[in-house]
Amino acid sequence: MASEIEFHLDNLKISNQLDQKVRDHYEEWKRGHHDIKNAFVSLKQLSGKKSVHEYEAKIVLYHTPDNIVAGHRSSAIPEALHGAIQAIERQLRETRSAFRDRRRKAEIQFKESQ
User: Fold this and answer.
1) How far, in Å, CA of 86 to CA of 32, rounded?
2) Which listed CATH number (3.40.50.720, 2.30.30.110, 3.40.1000.10, 3.30.160.100) goes with 5-113?
3) Which of 4, 31, 57, 98 is the S-S candidate for 80 at Cβ 3.0 to 4.6 Å?
């Protein structure tokens, strides 16, 4: 199954290994779930005197019911992407956990009402 990921690299280059790492994480997030439709990955070099050697990676997961967005800044491209991936994973775990909790509560309330 092809990854539905759009990359915007702002004239920057990433290695094939780093590209594959992002795609592997995306496939892992989707495995066994139907709540992710596709993703957008943005990578840019920040400008300004204090941030000349700083990169920002942002990832958007088009997720049902709400999209998930995370970003990370670092002095190196791989670390910026890794930080954004970690932030997305944390938010995805929290979102899925909250959904499971709401579903369990609704099932308990339904059983009690019968």
Assistant:
1) 20
2) 3.30.160.100
3) 57
